[in-house]
Amino acid sequence: MNIKIKSSGVSCLVGDDYDRVYTVLKKQLDPACGNLFSERIPGHEYLQWVLPGDGWASLADGDPIMSEMARSELHNRQQIIITKFGGNIAMAQKVLTVPDDSFIYYKSNADGHLDIRLTAWGYRYPERINGGDTTGIITPKVPTEPVCVQLIYNGQPMPGKPLRINGFLRATDKDGRLGIGDLPLGYQFDIDVDDTSMHHIVSAGNGNITIDCTKYTTVEVIVSKDSLPYEGADVHIAYGNTNQHLKTDSSGHASTKVPVDPKGSACNVSVDGEVQESPLNDVITTFRFNLTSPQIKVPEKEYPPVDDDKSEDKDDTDSGKSILADPPEKDDEDTDDQRDETDDVPEEEVEEEKEKPEETPAKRSWWSILLGILFALLLLLLIIATYIFGRGMLFG
């Protein structure tokens, strides 16, 4: 795409060094500023400048909002170029001069940023009816309103947040604001931020636009106690910059909406000292608590300490009662009497008693048998004698 102008209709401010100045600008400026200047191609009675590709629009007849964006971007680049020229400000002003806005072109590239090109740069109209030179920025002739967009999230500004104005990619400043510029009253444009879209119509006194980008999610808490719904349970929710206290209803439920934390932190929910923690879903996240009532402990009766020796004597006595075959123990006094009687026996008798052999049960049984036999024989003799005696008395 080439932009032409009659060579007789404009005057060059740079002079015969135009092509050399163009080469120096391309070498010494960074691409964003160096590409601002289009290359001049001399022709017969015409001058022309080359614009690469198609889709270019001029500030004179472009979309108002896009033109304002282009003016803002052009102003920033002009300040950088003037700084590069150092003390030679006069030369910087000459190369940045154009006949009028119709020689300033812009278009949106693939990533949503603006490409801006100056054609007929370093030239001006030799004569103007109203006088003065044109530097590429004109005052709108229709009523306008300054427009500024601010983005907030959970009441806080969003610095450096990307957004699109009529498809053109921009970003907010450190205060979460984007100044669009003066737009004609009644002008309509679209603002897109993530999944949020807004259509705005410019009106007087309505230039400050605030868009709340806050996304909300629901936190649901279900509490039961002893397998029954727990009514009136104290619920504490801590998430991001949010701290809320709730109470469960008669069904044991409590719920609230909280702003989604862009940092992706976990949500902390506590009920009666029991704590659960989990990241939140986009729509709803449910926390379930199954509580049990504390067990009532009956205090144990305390007994005085028992002496070990007495306890052992008592145990021995109790165990003796349970065994019927065991004879009762003798008192210490009987034992002492027996000991005294033993002491009175002469030592010789004690020794004899020790030396006597003990009779075994086998010996005692043989003696009993012999005595029985002898007794039977004597009884038999007695019977025989009685019989003989009686016979003699009867028969003479």
- Strand portion: 25-35%
The major sheet is characterized as: 4 strands, mixed
The computed structural class is: alpha+beta
Please provide the count of β strands. 24
Helix content: 25-40%
Distance between the termini: 193 Å
List unreliable stretches of 5+ residues.
Answer: 129-140, 319-328, 338-343
Number of helices: 8
Envelope shape = rod-shaped
Identify the notable features of this structure and list them briefly.
four-stranded antiparallel beta sheet, 396 residues, alpha+beta, 24 strands
Structure description:
The protein has 396 residues and is α+β, with helices and mostly antiparallel strands. The chain contains eight helices and 24 strands. The strands form seven sheets. Strands 9, 10, 13 and 16 form a four-stranded mixed beta sheet that branches. Strands 12-11-14-15 form a four-stranded antiparallel beta sheet, with no helix packed on it. Strands 17, 18, 21 and 24 form a four-stranded mixed beta sheet that branches. A hairpin with a 2-residue loop joins β11 and β12. The radius of gyration is 61 Å and the shape is rod-shaped.
Brief overview:
This protein has helices at 18-28, 31-34, 64-84, 89-95, 308-322, 332-344, 347-355, 361-395, and strands at residues 2-6, 11-12, 40-42, 46-50, 57-58, 104-108, 114-118, 123-124, 144-153, 156-157, 162-165, 168-171, 177-184, 188-193, 196-201, 208-212, 216-225, 228-229, 234-239, 242-247, 253-259, 267-271, 274-278, 284-291.
